[in-house]
């Protein structure tokens, strides 16, 4: 308690009645909450009567650990996420709402499969209605506690709404038939249970006499209803949050929940935690100068007893490539002055911005990691590459073959797959073994357009398997990605998504190269074993020596000594839609506030005069948020100053950043070069005329002399590895 400031101590001591703690960014809310729980227990309140709910497992685990450090065992206290709380209640009483106790929980993949099946059976085109769109519509209904019938009555009559109703109704029916719930159902069904069963509600009202809710500004309608119902009897509810950090309205969060808390509980006490322990003074002042323009907010202003620190650095670059290069050079310069790589974060508005920064980091030799909602190893193209490589290690893996037999498209649909799987089963073989069998019986059952492509794929995998002792892991990857047509198919698409997938595959090749460099005797078997473990590791580790790149939404709850916020331009940040909707503009402004308050010591804002997005190049206007930011807190470029003799908006960076007078040079594209190198790497002895007496170089065995060459086998006497017989169709040999 002695370490807490007076406002925090006031919140800790206020145990009875409704309490709203407005906890600004970096104001020590977790310490306040954990000390409040500890004080309750020390004051004689049984842990059994305390409920603390939050939004993420990480936050719940951190809160539990810190409470245990203060009081020891937490006993029967519930410290968990909303979903975990509802699941525990439902497991006990799900029979009351018609479910069996061992109900399944469907993840997003399961949900999509159910919707796709419904669409197929009902003749609904997936070109007109994407399964993900229909699932999003269903989720929105569930967040509002709307049944299919409620949705039908409340919505305007249209073809689209009729389709949503049909799919939603059938979707609910199938979940019931399968005794399954999705994640939205955990909340919704718990609310239905408590609403319809007074004795169950009373049981939990009597048990949870003291309720605490973290990140209250992020609660949706159902979560609000749940905690309000549970607290109705005791009225001992404490909600903690910051309306200035409500940035998830697009996925159901309702800012009115925190703004109207005093209407729901008129006797509520309000305590503001405004002392910030994270950022220097100028960063807080700059963030406040932006967020104060919002009208839908509680009046408060963060302050700190730390030094003012440096002003906010702002630079406007000629184009988006120069912007990325500037950020990379600035990070390198600061690192040379003594900062660690993990001191830096680049926070952008959209994931699409990351590519140029990744390339710039690579050029400067800066270690980096990209954090997004999806783990790197969960990305489709990485899973595909791993499936190909697994088949080289284990040809019995039918699941991996099922994944990639039609990736890229080879004319093998679900019916064809089931047919060849049945044939293979009758023969007592794996599907790959059956397809590779010399009698060609199973392969011959494929339709003509699929035959050649599947045969080429099977031969490539089989050759890689036969020759894996003579190939580097990199060679195997190159062969699989090129000879199966996987990379060529992505390159043909010429879309932003395909470009991103190709970049990710090249990053995966870097993972292989790192492994080969560190392993004593690298093999694909060992690499795949290590990968199986690595893929389970969480993306973010504070101790990792690398620059972190992520969206501002992903950065909430984190902090970094140095933060870069690129793309400060109207249309990008704030997004173009925000200019037609004041609510959206206020949410964008809150997002800007969240981004700025992640910085502890230094904050850099940048923009580009010319930016290429989705294949279109446009001149830009500096962000509205730059115009709102107090100019006295900025150093670097002025906002909206004209160049001498130039009518365009923005100013030259002059010589202040030390780089602007360099001539524009097309940056070296490391990733495209890597792709070209992969294709060149995949050139094999079959594409090079070899004869006895030719000098060659092998990627694994070095230089040697060809002593025999037939149509299928090349025999080489290597200087260091001796005589090797290599399969001509796959041996990575370069004629010298």
Chart the SSEs and their pairings.
Blueprint: H1 6-13, E1 19-23, H2 29-42, E2 50-54, H3 57-71, E3 78-81, H4 82-93, E4 104-106, H5 108-122, H6 131-143, H7 148-154, H8 159-177, E5 180-182, H9 183-196, H10 198-207, E6 210-213, H11 221-231, E7 237-241, H12 256-259, H13 261-264, E8 269-273, H14 281-291, E9 312-319, H15 320-336, E10 344-348, H16 354-364, E11 368-370, H17 380-393, H18 398-404, H19 414-427, H20 431-436, H21 448-466, H22 473-483, H23 486-493, H24 496-518, H25 524-534, E12 547-551, H26 552-555, E13 560-565, H27 582-596, E14 599-613, E15 616-619, H28 624-628, E16 634-636, H29 670-681, E17 695-698, E18 702-709, E19 713-718, E20 722-727, E21 733-735
Parallel strand pairs: 1-7, 1-8, 2-3, 2-6, 4-5, 6-7, 9-14, 9-16, 10-12, 10-13, 11-12, 13-14
Antiparallel strand pairs: 14-15, 17-18, 17-21, 18-19, 19-20
Helix pairs in contact: 1-2, 2-3, 4-9, 5-6, 5-8, 7-8, 9-10, 9-11, 14-27, 15-16, 17-18, 17-21, 17-24, 21-22, 23-24, 24-29
């Amino acid at each position: 308690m002695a370490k807490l400031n007076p406002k925090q101590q006031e919140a800790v001591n206020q145990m009875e009645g409704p309490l709203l703690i407005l906890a600004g960014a970096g104001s020590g809310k977790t310490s306040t909450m954990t000390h409040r729980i500890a004080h309750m227990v020390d004051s004689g309140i049984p842990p059994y009567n305390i409920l603390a709910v939050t939004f993420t497992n990480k936050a719940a685990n951190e809160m539990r650990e810190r409470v245990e450090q203060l009081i020891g065992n937490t006993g029967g206290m519930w410290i968990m996420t909303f979903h975990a709380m509802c699941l525990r209640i439902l497991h006990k009483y799900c029979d009351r709402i018609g479910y069996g106790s061992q109900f399944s929980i469907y993840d997003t993949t399961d949900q999509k499969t159910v919707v796709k099946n419904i669409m197929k059976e009902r003749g609904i085109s997936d070109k007109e209605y994407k399964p993900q769109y229909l699932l999003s519509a269903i989720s929105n209904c569930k967040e509002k506690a709307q049944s299919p019938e409620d949705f039908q009555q409340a919505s305007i009559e249209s073809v689209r709404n009729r389709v949503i109703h049909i799919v939603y109704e059938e979707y609910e029916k199938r979940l019931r038939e399968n005794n399954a719930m999705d994640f939205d159902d955990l909340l919704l069904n718990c609310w239905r249970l408590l609403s319809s069963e007074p004795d169950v509600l009373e049981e939990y009202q009597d048990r949870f006499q003291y309720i605490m809710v973290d990140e209250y500004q992020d609660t949706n309608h159902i979560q609000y209803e749940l905690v309000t119902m549970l607290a109705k009897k005791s009225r001992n509810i404490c909600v903690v949050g910051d309306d200035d950090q409500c940035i998830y309205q697009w996925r159901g969060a309702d800012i009115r929940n925190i703004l109207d808390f005093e209407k729901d509980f008129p006797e509520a006490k309000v305590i503001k935690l405004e002392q910030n322990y994270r950022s220097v003074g100028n960063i807080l002042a700059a963030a406040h100068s932006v967020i104060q323009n919002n009208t839908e907010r509680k009046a408060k202003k963060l302050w700190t007893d730390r030094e003012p620190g440096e002003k906010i650095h702002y630079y406007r670059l000629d184009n988006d490539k120069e912007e990325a290069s500037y950020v990379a050079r600035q990070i390198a310069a600061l690192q040379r002055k003594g900062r660690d790589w993990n001191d830096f974060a680049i926070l952008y508005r959209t994931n699409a911005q990351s590519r140029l920064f990744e390339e710039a980091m690579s050029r400067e030799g800066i270690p980096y990691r990209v954090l997004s909602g999806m783990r790197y190893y969960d990305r489709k193209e990485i899973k595909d590459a791993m499936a190909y490589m697994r088949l080289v290690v284990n040809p019995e893996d039918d699941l991996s073959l099922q994944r990639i037999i039609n990736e890229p498209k080879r004319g093998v649909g679900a019916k064809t797959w089931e047919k060849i799987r049945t044939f293979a089963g009758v023969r007592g073989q794996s599907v790959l073994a059956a397809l590779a069998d010399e009698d060609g019986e199973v392969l011959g059952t494929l339709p003509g357009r699929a035959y050649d492509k599947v045969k080429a794929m099977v031969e490539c995998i089989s050759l890689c398997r036969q020759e894996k002792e003579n190939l580097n892991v990199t060679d195997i990857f190159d062969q699989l990605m090129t000879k199966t047509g996987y990379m060529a198919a992505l390159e043909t698409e010429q879309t932003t998504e395909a470009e991103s997938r190709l970049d990710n595959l090249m990053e995966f090749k870097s993972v292989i190269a790192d492994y080969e460099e560190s392993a004593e005797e690298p093999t694909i078997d060992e690499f795949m074993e290590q990968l199986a473990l690595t893929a389970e590791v969480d993306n973010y580790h504070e101790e990792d020596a690398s620059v972190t790149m992520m969206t501002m939404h992903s950065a909430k709850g984190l902090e970094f000594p140095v933060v870069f916020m690129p793309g400060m331009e109207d249309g990008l940040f704030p997004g173009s839609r925000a200019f037609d909707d004041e609510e959206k503009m206020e949410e964008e402004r809150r997002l800007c506030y969240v981004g700025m308050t992640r910085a502890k010591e230094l904050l850099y804002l940048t923009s580009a005069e010319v930016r290429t997005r989705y294949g279109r190049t446009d001149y830009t206007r500096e962000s509205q948020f730059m115009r709102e930011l107090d100019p006295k807190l900025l150093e670097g470029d002025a906002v909206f100053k004209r160049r001498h003799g130039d009518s365009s908006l923005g100013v030259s960076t002059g010589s202040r950043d030390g780089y602007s007078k360099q001539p524009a040079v097309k940056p070296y594209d490391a990733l495209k070069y890597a792709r070209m190198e992969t294709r060149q790497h995949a050139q094999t002895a079959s594409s090079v005329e070899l004869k006895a007496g030719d000098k060659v170089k092998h990627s694994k065995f070095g230089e040697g002399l060809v002593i025999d060459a037939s149509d299928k086998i090349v025999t080489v006497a290597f200087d260091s590895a001796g005589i090797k017989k290599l399969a001509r169709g796959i041996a990575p040999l370069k004629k010298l």
